[in-house]
TrEMBL record:
SUPFAM superfamilies xref list: Periplasmic binding protein-like II
GO biological process, one term: peptide transport
Cited Gene3D superfamilies: Dipeptide-binding Protein, Domain 3 (3.10.105.10)
Organism field: bioreactor metagenome
Sample GO molecular function, one term: peptide transmembrane transporter activity
Lineage: unclassified sequences, metagenomes, ecological metagenomes
Record-given protein name: Solute-binding protein family 5 domain-containing protein
Length: 137
């Protein structure tokens, strides 16, 4: 940022202080956050949908909201792709939002556990162990 002539003061907060400053007071100019955003693009609505709790920039677009609603309402993967691609194009045009990093998380578990919330094949549900069990021997 300095190379672009922009003076930045980085403030790092523990979660509750960050939540109050950013989520409640909306007291920020530039905000960086992490969080689960997929693999289903329906998560876009939670981050950018009008009135959503995680929409910290208060972005609002009736067209975006409608595209996300239509995408979530159909099981046709081709149609879903069309809706979400259009929604993402709106975000690219409308928002100063720059995804800068992604990550991979690895969990080691005993092989006799079944129904783990993270199975490495596309099921991702951190902290949801309701149906985790030991395999019958």
């Amino acid at each position: 940022m300095a190379q672009a002539g922009i003076d930045v003061e980085v403030q790092v907060h523990e979660y509750n202080a960050w939540s109050e400053k950013v989520g409640t007071k909306r007291d920020f100019i530039l905000e960086m956050q992490g969080g689960f955003m997929g693999p289903d693009p329906a998560a876009l609505a939670k981050r950018f949908g009008t009135g959503q709790a995680s929409n910290y920039a208060a972005y609002s677009s009736a067209e975006f909201d409608s595209l996300c609603e239509q995408g979530a309402a159909t099981g046709d993967q081709g149609k879903r792709a069309e809706y979400y691609k259009k929604a993402q194009a709106l975000l690219a045009k409308d928002l100063p939002y720059v995804p800068i990093v992604t990550f991979a998380g690895y969990d080691a578990n005993r092989s006799d556990y079944i129904n783990l919330p993270i199975d490495g094949t596309g099921k991702w549900g951190w902290a949801e162990f309701t149906y985790t069990d030991l395999a019958a021997k």
